[in-house]
Amino acid sequence: MKNLLRTLIYDEQVSLTLADTTAIVREGMRLHRLSKGSAYVFGKALSAMTFMSACLKNERGEISLSLKGDGDCGEIGVSGNQALRIRGFIVNTDLQGEANAETERNAPGENASITIIRDDGYTRPFVGACALPQKGGLDEGFEEYFRISEQLPTRIATTVIIDENGECSFAGLVALQPLPFADEETLSKVEKADLESLLSTIKTQGVTACAKENFDVEESVWEEKKAVYKCNCSRRYLTRVLVSLGETQMRQIIREDGAVRVHCHYCNTDYEFTSEDADLLFPKE
Ligand SMILES: [Zn+2]
After folding, report:
1. What distance in angstroms lies between residue 215's CA and the mean position of ligand 1's atoms?
2. 97 C-alpha vs ligand 1 centroid, how far in Å?
3. Up-side HSE of residue 265: CA atoms within 13 Å toward CB?
4. Domain total for the chain?
5. Mean pLDDT within 202-206
6. Same domain, 167 and 250
7. Residue 223 sits in the same domain as residue 260
8. CA-to-CA distance for 232 and 42, rounded, in angstroms?
9. Exposed, middle or buried by CB within 10 Å (0-12, 13-18, 19+), for 160?
10. Cys-Cys with 43: which of 5, 83, 99, 160 at CB 3.0–4.6 Å?
C-alpha cells in the first residue's frame, strides 16, 4: 500500500507531504522491543525521517539524523534513503512513561541537539545542526532544524498512538514546506494550517482522502510512494567487508574471540563468522 503522498498546494507555492507511518513504527518497535515511552519518541523520529527521505532528489541520496542530549532516552539515530527505506535505533529501549508529550519533552533532556547529515549523492555531504528548543517537543526541534540550517520555514507534525496493549494503532506525519518564492499570504496560510486535523484525517481515511478533502489539487500530479522500515545490512555485504579486511586479520580475530561478531544496531541483528566461514572465504590453494 502506498503510504506517502507528496504534491504542491496553495498555487504551487508549498510542498505538502502526508504519510501514514504506522507500519514503519510497528516494525521499529518489533525489532528493538520497545517500551511505550521509547516507541513514542522513536516513532516520531522515524516519521520525521520518512519526510526528510522523501525530500531527497537524487536516487543515491541518503540522510541521517542523530538526536543527542543528557536525558533518559540516550541517543536516537534514524536514517533513510530516496527509496524510502527507513531505519534507526534508540539507545534506551525501555524508556519509562506513557506515550505522550510529557515523555517526549523529558526524554532528550537538557541541552539536546539534532545533527543531520544529508548526502545528495554528488558532492560532499551537507551537515547541519541545531539545539532542541528548551520547552519544545521533537516536532519543534525538526522545525527549528529546517528554519536554521536549511532556511526553510517548514511546519512538521508527527503523531504516534500506542494503545493499552502497547501496540502502535497509528503513526503519521504531515509536513508543509513553502518554496523559496512563496509570498507572504501563502506563508501565513502555512502558519495557520491545522496539522493535527490533517493527521486525524490520515488516521481515519488515509493519505489520498486527506489530500482530496483538504486541498484543491490536481490528482494527476500527485506523487504516491511506499515507505518502509528496512535495514540495508546483510550477511553478503558483511562478507565483502571481511574479504577486504583480509585473511590474516579475520583469522586473528577468530583466534582471539572465537568468531567475528558484528551487531547491526539499526535492525538489532547479530552476525557471526566462524573459522568455517573463513575457510570458505579464503580457500586453501
Ligand atoms: Zn541491519
Report:
1. 38
2. 28
3. 10
4. 2
5. 96
6. no
7. no
8. 19
9. buried
10. 160
| 284 CA to centre of ligand 1 in angstroms | 31
pLDDT tens for each residue of 35-88? 999 999 999 999 999 999 999 989 999 999 999 999 999 999 999 999 999 999
Which of 229, 244, 266 terminates a domain? The answer is 229
d(CA 132, CA 108): 9
pLDDT at 234: 92
Do 123 and 251 belong together in one domain?
no
Q: Are residues 195 and 239 in the same domain?
A: no
Q: Over the stretch 119-159, which tens digit does the pLDDT of each residue have?
A: 988 778 999 999 998 777 899 999 999 998 888 889 999 99
Q: Is the pLDDT of residue 218 over 80?
A: no
Q: How far is the CA of 267 from the centre of ligand 1 (A)?
A: 4
Same domain membership, residue 101 and residue 156: yes
CATH number of the domain bearing residue 221: 3.55.30.10
The domain that contains 277 carries what CATH number?
A: 3.90.1280.10
Same domain, 113 and 243: no
* Ligand 1 center to 52 CA (angstroms): 20
Contact 41, 35 (CB under 8 A): no
Range of the domain at 70: 4-229
Q: Are strands 168-178 and 223-225 parallel, antiparallel or unpaired?
A: unpaired
C-alpha 78 – ligand 1 centre gap (Å) = 12
Q: Is 107 left (phi over 0), alpha (psi -120 to 50) or beta?
A: alpha
Average pLDDT, integer, range 164-183? 95
CA of 235 to the centre of ligand 1 (A): 10
- Taking the centre of ligand 1 as the mean of its atom positions, its distance from the CA of residue 272, in whole angstroms, is 13
**Same structural domain for residues 165 and 34?**
yes
Q: How far is the CA of 275 from the centre of ligand 1 (A)?
A: 23
